[in-house]
Amino acid sequence: MADFDLFVIGGGSGGVACARRAASHGARVGLVEEGSMGGTCVHRGCIPKKFLVYASHFRHDFEDAAGYGWSVGESRFDWPTMVAAKSKELARLEGIYRRLLKESGVTAIDGRGALLDANSVAIGEERYSADTILIATGGWPFMPELPGIELAITSNEAFDLPRLPGRIVIVGGGYIACEFAGIFNGFGVETVQLYRSDMILRGFDMDIREICCDEMRKSGIDVRLNVNAVKLEKNADGIALTTTQGDVLEADQVLFATGRVPSTAAIGLNEAGVERNHKGAVSVDSGSRSNIASIYAVGDCTDRVNLTPVAIHEGRCLAETLFNDNPQIPDHRNIPTAIFTQPEIGTVGMSEEDARTHCAAVDIYKTRFRPLKHTLTGRGETVFMKLVVDRADDRVVGCHMIGSAASELSQLLGVAIKAGATKAQFDETVAVHPTTAEEFVTMYEPVGA
């Protein structure tokens, strides 16, 4: 008899979700984690990033208050205080993760787990057998091979810098790069962002990409497109970064946010015969099973949809399938997504570009305006909203927004898209006034087809 029915390698969102759900159905579950329980989301991603977004946005809030009669007075930001408060909360959250695992009956082990074969895991000198093994080791920031790259940091280190830099160069154009550009800019850091292509946020709706870039520049971020880093050198004032245009940028800190790769090295995948793709991601079928019948994988290590709620969804589906006689296949369609730029982005469903590929004909509805709040603050920030409609059946197949509360709205719009709501049903819904959200149900005339 095996030691466990299920053994999980990785204590992030997907691994913990699967372990707890499986244990709730009576499975004997073990889980190993070499770092802090909670994984990227809790310690190097979603949660600390949102804290920094909140903190950096107070600068705008203080400025905006004057338009409503408030005299805020002199304000000062203390980076060490913020870092300490953040770290204290993350330690509390890790404690909750450990408590929940224990209360669920999961045997949690600290250490680095590696496969020995299809049914065995080694943790140091210890050996454990399991009928089923789950790989949930997440991802890790990618760093390109450039001269002087050791002088740069990634998003991992950005949360615990000993001091706030006065000048920062951020290399990359994805959501992590754009979010950190907004964060450091909000703290008053002189911020330059370099991106090798002609527009940030590849893969998102083009209107959203262009307007986000416009808003970032309006806020004071020096976004430079079609520019990349060539080398980094240490100098008396900090770091000198040479670009592909031949410019030399002086900075106190350089942050590379140039993508993430699956964390699948040195965990015994080759020894167990588990197949990986060209990115190193574990190759799995629709049910998260690898080519080895007893080995599964969920979350970022599979490089499907690299989002925390998706990893949780995949993990729970697997537990239901294997241990509750309730087969479930993860659904990766119409996933609501938020980007915590400033202003933030919320999106669900197809971009206009994707819809024009998949639908015979589409109608496009969109609007851009200054929100009511800023009519008194004088801030030039705008809101943009867009609906993409399949003309064949009037279904709304894409909702996109940039502006305050976009992330919150995208969650609710995700329900509507998932339910197959039509444009007529959007139009029939009574507006809540005065709100920004009402624009989603009052865009009556298409602007493009």
Write out key terms for the chains shown:
Enolase-like, domain 1, five-stranded antiparallel beta sheet, FAD/NAD(P)-binding domain, 449 residues, 3 domains, 25% strand
**Tally of extended strands?**
21
Radius of gyration: 24 Å
Output the CATH topology of the largest domain.
FAD/NAD(P)-binding domain
The span between the termini is: 63 Å
Provide the CATH top-level class of the largest domain: Alpha Beta
Largest sheet: 7 strands, mixed
Describe what this molecule looks like in 3D.
The protein is 32% helix and 25% strand. Strands 1, 2, 3, 4, 5, 6 and 16 form a seven-stranded mixed β-sheet that branches. A hairpin with a 4-residue loop joins strand 12 and strand 13. It has 449 residues and is an alpha/beta fold. Helix 1 runs parallel beside helix 9.
Furnish the topology, listing elements before pairings:
Elements lengths: L3 E6 L3 H12 L4 E5 L5 H5 L2 H20 L13 H26 L2 E4 L2 E5 L2 E4 L2 E10 L3 E3 L13 H4 L8 E5 L3 H12 L3 E6 L10 H13 L3 E4 L3 E7 L2 E6 L4 E4 L1 E4 L3 E3 L6 H4 L22 E3 L10 H16 L13 E3 L5 E5 L2 H7 L3 E8 L4 H4 L5 E8 L4 E8 L3 H13 L4 H6 L21
Parallel strand pairs: 1-2, 1-6, 2-3, 6-16, 8-9, 8-14, 9-10
Antiparallel strand pairs: 4-5, 5-6, 7-15, 11-12, 12-13, 17-18, 18-21, 19-20, 20-21
Helix pairs in contact: 1-4, 1-9, 3-4, 3-6
